[in-house]
Amino acid sequence: MAEHKLNILFTCAGRRVVLLEAFRRAMKELDVAGKILATDITNASAAFHKADKGIVVPPTGTVEYIPALLKICTSENIGLVIPLTDLDLRSLTRRREEFSSIGSEIMIGSPETIGMCRDKTLTSKFLRRIGLQTIRTFSLEQFREKPFFPCFIKPIRGSASIGTGKLHSEAEMNAHLATYGNLMLFQDYVPGAEYTLDIYRSRSGKVLSVVPRQRLAIRAGEVEKGLTVNDSELIDAAVCLGENLDGLWGVVNAQCRRPSGDKAHFFEINPRFGGGAPLSINAGADLPRYVLEETLGMPISAGMGKFQPDMLMLRYDDAVFVHADNPSELPGFDTPQKR
């Protein structure tokens, strides 16, 4: 008989099959019995079919979404909820006490911290306040007063690099705004190597693990080719950043770009597992294991520097094959989806 039991619910599971498998492996190694469940707005989701149970839920922005998750947590005896995208972070953190009251803990931060991470303007202010170098950031109104090109544009509350881009002229800017709307901010375009830092922060507020990974190639906002690096400047910055994220526990990632001969310029914080987290996990920083250990009250095996540097990740497409019961209801049936 297993020593521990825990059912885990992953929300907005999408394509995160490798991460689910990493949790399944960690559960086995820790002798934890339980099910892995995944939600999505459609069953046309790879992780939906690779979980022990997939459940279709209403869209994240609807009033039905959180009640649907609460119902699942009650009926399936969920002990841990892990959001996998930015889409439901705000609604989950606002209602986290309701989940806690039925025994379902969410790996998430406080409403204030989540709000700061989701609003890129507030993120920039936070980074400056804790002493990290950031990228100059302007609102649309400020930018129009003193425009400069090239510049980088991104949504104030963006995700997956949708609506981001390098602009070279006012004509390009107007076309971009016409396509994606005016809720945009503008930044200096900073060339250089780009990094994501996977951070594990305990409930006590201590950063226990940091893995910097260089983003060599990016596709649809996620790293396609990445390399772990043992870089003391990046690790020290990640510790500073993580220990200032009040009320957050678990996995968080931060992104920065470092021009040649300069310090790293930070520009984004994602309070969740990043798409490239499997690289850090396979390099030796077993993030799913740390989450399980802390959730179950076990000693956390994380440690600074416990990862293999220079591990290269080369992601490729795989496929899940299932029977489609109602083909006409599949997303993209009438018009193909483009990502």
Search tags:
globular, D-amino Acid Aminotransferase, Chain A, domain 1, alpha/beta, 339 residues, Rossmann fold, 12 helices
Overall outline: globular
Q: How many structural domains in the coordinates?
A: 3
Strand order across the largest sheet: 16-15-12-13-14-17
Number of strands: 17
CATH homology-level superfamily of the largest domain? ATP-grasp fold, B domain
The CATH class assignment of the largest domain is Alpha Beta
Mean pLDDT: 94
**Poorly predicted spans:** none
The class by helix and strand makeup works out as: alpha/beta
Q: Which CATH architecture of the largest domain?
A: 2-Layer Sandwich
CATH topology of the largest domain: D-amino Acid Aminotransferase, Chain A, domain 1
What string, H for helix and E for strand, traces the elements in order? Answer: EEHEEHEHEHHEHHEHEEHEEEEHEEHHE
Estimated share of beta-strand residues = 25-35%
Distance between the terminal alpha carbons, to the nearest Å?
A: 45 Å
- Radius of gyration equals 20 Å
Describe, in plain words, how this protein is organized in 3D.
The protein is an alpha/beta fold. The protein has three domains: 4-108, Rossmann fold (3-Layer(aba) Sandwich), CATH 3.40.50.20; 114-119 and 191-314, ATP-grasp fold, B domain (D-amino Acid Aminotransferase, Chain A, domain 1, 2-Layer Sandwich), CATH 3.30.470.20; 136-188, ATP-grasp fold, A domain (Dna Ligase, domain 1, 2-Layer Sandwich), CATH 3.30.1490. The chain contains twelve helices and 17 strands. The protein has helices at residues 17-29, 46-50, 65-75, 89-94, 96-101, 111-118, 120-129, 140-145, 170-180, 232-243, 277-282, 287-295; strands at 4-5, 7-11, 32-33, 36-40, 53-56, 78-83, 105-106, 137-139, 151-155, 165-167, 184-188, 193-201, 207-219, 222-228, 250-258, 265-270, 312-314. The strands form four sheets. Strands 16-15-12-13-14-17 form a six-stranded antiparallel β-sheet. The chain has a five-stranded parallel β-sheet with strand order 5-4-2-6-7, with helices on both faces. A four-stranded antiparallel β-sheet has the order 8-11-9-10, with helices on both faces. The longest helix has 13 residues, at 17-29. The chain is globular.
